[in-house]
Amino acid sequence: MSKQRPYLVGITGGIGSGKSTVAKIFSILGIPVYFADDRAKWLMSHNPELKKAIEENFGAESYSSSGELNRSYLAAHVFADEEKVKIINGLVHPAVKNDFEFWAAAQNSPYVLKEAALLFETGSYTDLDKVINVSSPLKIRINRIMLRDPQRDEKQVNDIINKQLPDEEKNSKADYVIKNSDNKLLIPQVLAIHQELLQLAKN
Predict the structure, then answer these.
(1) For 108-164, what is each residue's pLDDT tens digit?
(2) Which annotated residues bind ATP (predicted)?
(3) Is 66 assigned to a binding site?
(4) Which of 5, 53, 107, 115 could pair with 23 as two cysteines, CB 3.0-4.6 Å apart?
(5) Contact 14/4 with Cβ under 8 angstroms?
(6) Half-sphere exposure of 12 (CA within 13 A, CB side)
(7) pTM, two decimal places
(8) pLDDT tens, residue by residue, 31-65
(9) What is the DSSP string of the chain?
(10) Dmax over Cα atoms in the chain, in whole Å?
(11) Annotated binding residue 130
(12) Is 124 marked within a binding site?
């Protein structure tokens, strides 16, 4: 009999919302977490088909002579141009989707988490059974980002936030919302969702 695939759960949230912290709490509970943004960077340097497609679209300068991704070149020549961003996303997202499916099938767990900043923006949430959004007040998010990345000023932080879907829209699309603010404890919220997901995965 073939092994049943685990229940697939996405976890997202705007920059500075604390989604990585929430994902780590699930990880402590024994739930495998796929960090999609980190994995995308890895695939861009190690997946031969993806590397070839990036070189064909953006030139040999996309990689160093040792085969490492040339981040400064891509930042200057690709990520500053919205049309080029669409092209690179169209190459990277399918590679991440395949990688995640392969990874998820190998996990021995009732459910797995896919942590990604742009689950709703890319449409990849439609491949998942449930989605959790980590929501946090804007002021707290800005303070967190500026503490974490002191080289960014408030305008740069707001520019990044404005490129992502508003929190209200993410909350309305999500199956669960975890509120990460100074007056809400995270662990009880995570435990309640964890118990519900265990039940759903069992059924």
Answers:
(1) 999 999 999 889 988 899 999 999 999 999 999 999 999 988 888 888 888 888 888
(2) 16-21
(3) no
(4) 115
(5) no
(6) 28
(7) 0.89
(8) 999 999 999 999 999 999 999 999 999 999 999 98
(9) -PPPPPEEEEEE--TTS-HHHHHHHHHHTT--EEEHHHHHHHHHHH-HHHHHHHHHHH-GGGB-TTS-B-HHHHHHHTTT-HHHHHHHHHHHHHHHHHHHHHHHHT--SSEEEEE-TTHHHHTGGGGSSEEEEEE--HHHHHHHHHHH-TT--HHHHHHHHHHSPPHHHHHHH-SEEEE-STTS-HHHHHHHHHHHHHHHHH-
(10) 56
(11) no
(12) no
The answer to whether 13 touches 140, Cβ cutoff 8 Å, is: no
Task: Tell me which residue of 176, 201, 196 sits closest to 22, measured CA to CA.
Answer: 176
Which amino acid type is present at position 152?
A: R
Residue 148 contacts residue 67 (beta carbons within 8 Å): no
Tell me whether residue 16 is annotated as binding.
yes
Task: Specify the CATH architecture of the domain 7-32+107-202.
Answer: 3-Layer(aba) Sandwich (3.40)
Distance CA 44, CA 54 (A): 8
Residue 21 is assigned to a ligand binding site: yes
Q: Which two tokens stand for residue 58?
A: 């953006």
- Each domain of the chain, given as residue ranges in start order, spans 7-32+107-202, 41-92
The token duo for 74 is 């891509």
